[in-house]
């Protein structure tokens, strides 16, 4: 079992190139099922969630291979319609395969999705979208079965915004009969990238006004290729890592235009940044101001996925900071671990109050993806050594956090304790 060792105190500096976006590539891998040729995803991150999705696609009959970071998906011989819960239960994104399977062959049977333990994570909006398009849904024996003769375009007004449910509806609508209008869609960049990929496959998708997407069903889609954009959450994570050590970082390929809410907070804390010919140059030396109040919101608000990494930074900033988590019910799990390091944190329902202090290194345990990254960030600022368990959680979304942070002069390494 791996452990991450961090010796805190180094002031991070240097430049890195960030991996492709996890939350962009996963729905695009599912979308490849909608065509019967070959798709190529360039700059694909080699993370655990991509491996999990690849395994699921293999079960359905997709043949995949890699050339460096380029993932090839041959969907010409896909015949599977069923995915067991041992596979779907490893990630949240597996649920949108229903929409892709319905679009490809009018039937899908999947186990319930899994994913990080950050909240209840219901799928009612996903099923609402599929039923609206004419799917017959049954849930029994721990599985979800969806059938249809042919999906029919429909007006779908989402009662609440959901990234996954918007993706679900798009995957089902592109090959449906007639026109679908989706209202109150999620506005995350991942939705825009998925639409671009589907359009490159031949789908007819039109962005009406904010949060409204119109889809005109077509009869078939074709193989294509796309460069996966840089991961905005990994970029923000590494800016937090530099900020915790009051260091600086240049991200060579940062996704400009996708990080405004985060960068606004970074600047309010005393950080400085500029975009220069596609690079994000950030300097955290001046980070000294607490954040009196911040709340996570759907895009373009402050992203919930950067709430834990920012919280870790705020435990080192003098003064009182407050964060309200509006998206997920259980996203303060790392507070008990940070308290072990000497952080002063009070969790009150969906809000957390942080009083900055010095941290000391100790043994820590990650229980979910972004919380695990936040523990690494806190360890970088702490006095002495920290050991972080639960590395597979971090590997779900970070290709090699130790490698990347070593590029920034962090003293961090992975140890496989079984091999000791
Ligand atoms: C996606 O999750 C991301 N995951 C999450 O990233 C991200 O935090 C989240 O969007 C919000 O931006 C992937 O893209 C694989 P939602 P998703 O549906 O689609 C409720 C990470 O760390 N809801 O937008 O599951 C839900 O409970 C992960 O990379 C329903 O009530 O998020 C939540 O409160 C974590 N019913 C809110 O909506 C539903 O049917 C937003 O969830 C679906 C969602």
Main attributes of the structure:
about 425 residues, alpha/beta, UDP-n-acetylglucosamine1-carboxyvinyl-transferase, Chain, 24 strands, binds ligand EPZ
How many strand units?
24
Helix content: 25-40%
- Largest sheet strand order: 22-23-1-24
Let me know the largest β-sheet.
4 strands, mixed
Number of helices: 14
Rg, rounded, reads: 21 Å
| Distance, first to last CA | 10 Å
Percent of residues in β-strands: 15-25%
CATH top level assignment of the domain at 2-17 and 230-416: Alpha Beta
CATH superfamily annotation of the domain at 2-17 and 230-416: Enolpyruvate transferase domain
Family: Belongs to the EPSP synthase family. MurA subfamily.
Pathway: Cell wall biogenesis; peptidoglycan biosynthesis
Protein name: UDP-N-acetylglucosamine 1-carboxyvinyltransferase
GO biological process, one term: cell wall organization
Description:
With 420 residues, the chain is of the alpha/beta class. It has a domain at 2-17 and 230-416: UDP-n-acetylglucosamine1-carboxyvinyl-transferase, Chain, CATH 3.65.10.10. The protein has helices at residues 22-31, 48-60, 85-88, 97-105, 124-132, 163-173, 189-200, 232-244, 260-268, 307-314, 335-340, 369-381, 391-395, 401-407; strands at residues 2-7, 15-16, 38-42, 63-67, 70-74, 82-83, 107-111, 136-140, 143-147, 155-157, 179-183, 204-207, 213-216, 225-227, 248-251, 272-276, 279-283, 294-295, 320-324, 344-348, 351-355, 363-365, 385-389, 411-416. Strands 22-23-1-24 form a 4-stranded mixed sheet. Strands 2-15-17-16 form a 4-stranded mixed sheet, covered by helices on one side. It has a 4-stranded mixed sheet with strand order 4-5-3-14, covered by helices on one side. It is globular and about 60 Å long.
